[in-house]
UniProtKB/TrEMBL annotation:
Protein family according to the UniProt entry: Belongs to the bacterial CoaD family.
Entries under Gene3D superfamilies matching the protein: HUPs (3.40.50.620)
Name under which the protein is recorded: Phosphopantetheine adenylyltransferase
Annotated positions binding ATP: 11-12, 19, 90-92, 100, 125-131
Places the protein is found: Cytoplasm
Cytidyltransferase-like domain mapped to chain residues: 8-135
Domain of life: Bacteria
General function of this protein: Reversibly transfers an adenylyl group from ATP to 4'-phosphopantetheine, yielding dephospho-CoA (dPCoA) and pyrophosphate.
Reaction(s) the record says it catalyses: (R)-4'-phosphopantetheine + ATP + H(+) = 3'-dephospho-CoA + diphosphate
């Protein structure tokens, strides 16, 4: 049986062109892509979960097989809930891999039916992170190369630009 659903988890605070690069490339390989916005208890977000979901939905509106969800709990439980057996994780650099490997190992222990696939972000997006984009935006610098227009507008409003 072919896999039809994949989950792309993250905090997406905010979504960047690096995230969209992965989403767009994966969307052609699965029938359904489920973006799972997770609330990280260790981070206070710039945007609320609801704002992040709205920004993601605007940013992926041209990709018909993408759905956006919020989930509080274990990612593997979300996968079970929607019937997905694949988690997609984007990697920017080797330094991301150690953290991702720990998450993947725990998820595999919790649910051996769920596999994690890693995708390298395209080189031109490998230096972009949500936290760096937010920092640059606070200084009123041009961030149009890093985030889609709805996110650029929201960041300008958030930081009073």
């Amino acid at each position: 049986m072919a896999e039809t659903k994949a989950v792309i988890p993250g905090s997406f605070d905010p979504i960047t062109y690096g995230h969209l690069d992965i989403i767009e490339r994966v969307a052609h390989r699965f029938d359904e892509i489920h973006i799972c916005v997770l609330k990280n208890r260790n981070k206070s977000g710039t945007f609320t979960v609801e704002e992040r979901i709205a920004l993601i939905e605007e940013s992926v509106a041209n990709i018909p097989n993408v759905q956006v969800h919020q989930f509080n709990g274990l990612l593997v439980d979300f996968c079970d809930k929607i019937g997905a057996k694949t988690i997609i994780r984007g990697l920017r650099a080797v330094s991301d891999f150690e953290y991702e490997l720990r998450l993947t190992s725990m998820n595999k222990k919790l649910n051996s039916d769920v596999e994690t696939l890693y995708m390298m972000t395209s080189t031109n997006y490998s230096f972009i992170s949500s936290s760096v984009v937010k920092e640059v935006a606070q200084y009123k610098a041009d961030i149009s190369e890093f985030v889609p227009p709805p996110v650029e507008k929201a960041l300008k409003e958030k930081f009073g630009n």
